[in-house]
Amino acid sequence: MKWFKYAVVITAAALTAGCISSDTLIKLNADGSGTIEERMLMSTSALNMMQSMGGEGKAADPFSEESLKKAADDMGTGVRFVSAQPIEAEGMKGSKAIYAFDDINAIQMKSSGAMSMGQSDEAAGKKGQGDFAFKLDRTGGTPTLTITMPGDREAAGGAAAGEAPPPTPEKAPEMPPEAMNMMKMMMKGLHINVSVAVNGRITNTNAKYHTDSQVTLIDLNFDDLMNNPAALAAMQGQMGPGSDPAAMQKALENIKGVKIETGKVVTVQWK
């Protein structure tokens, strides 16, 4: 019975995440405007499965212009679709779409599920905790971008008055070898990246992963992760009802194939 439950959970995860390569790059100007470049690739099997879910006999195409335009609505107020081009790589198909925005403060960038593993749907969606929050301050002549990581709304502004404290995390049950092998197969090729690039040179930041002009918020290569027993044990130890995404980030710190910003709030100044 336990094995069946694991199989159901893993299969559901594979349907929504497995065999997908997702790269999101936010390019930001000092005035708060910019673009979002989304490069999404999906394996043929995952794409066929998604298309077979289309209603009324019509196959759903996640890379059609219509679907990509609708995606802009989920990115925040004022985000608009600019262009898209089909791409293929390593047996996967997808598209590179570009969106434009006028105000980074209105952006609601989803975490693609990467930061909400182990959370319930209710917890992940509560008060936008599954989103990155952005705030740009242009006073003083130096633009300062503040990024609140998913799941850390309370850390940035405090819990609402009268709100109950989060429940104590429950340790997830140990995953049997059969389920782990299935997960490895399902998650093969899964890669998620979210980065922010500023139009200029970074002069000050507390981001752990950064270059002269770009910070990496999430970079997860599940092929590396699935082949690292220590990393899997650390990840599993942080999963379960009421789990804390920040604790999982810390547990996976300095592991090959895993780059997750462990700070609750990331600041970036540039000129």
Task: Please explain how this structure is put together.
The protein has one domain. The strands form 2 sheets. The protein has a 7-stranded mixed sheet with strand order 3-4-2-1-8-10-11. The N and C termini lie far apart (58 Å). The protein has 271 residues and is of the alpha+beta class. The protein is built from 9 helices and 12 strands. α1 (2-16) packs parallel to α6 (177-186).
Give the strand tally. Answer: 12
Number of helices: 9
Widest sheet: strand ordering: 3-4-2-1-8-10-11
> Unreliable runs, pLDDT <50, ≥5 residues?
1-18, 113-127, 154-161
What's the shape? globular
Distance between the termini: 58 Å
Q: What string gives the helices and strands in order?
A: HEEHHEEEHEEHHEEEHHHEE
Biggest sheet, open or closed, and with what strands and sense? 7 strands, mixed
The fraction of residues assigned to DSSP E strands is 25-35%
Radius of gyration: 19 Å
Secondary structure: helix percent: 25-40%
**Derived structural class:** alpha+beta
The average pLDDT is 74
What count of structural domains? 1
Summarize the model shown.
By secondary structure, this protein is of the alpha+beta class. Helix content is 26%, strand content 31%.
Q: What does the secondary structure layout of this molecule look like, with pairings?
A:
Layout: H1 2-16, E1 20-28, E2 34-43, H2 44-51, H3 65-71, E3 80-89, E4 92-101, E5 108-110, H4 121-125, E6 131-137, E7 144-148, H5 153-157, H6 177-186, E8 191-198, E9 202-205, E10 214-221, H7 222-226, H8 229-237, H9 245-251, E11 258-260, E12 265-270
Parallel strand pairs: 1-8
Antiparallel strand pairs: 1-2, 2-4, 3-4, 5-6, 6-7, 7-12, 8-10, 9-12, 10-11
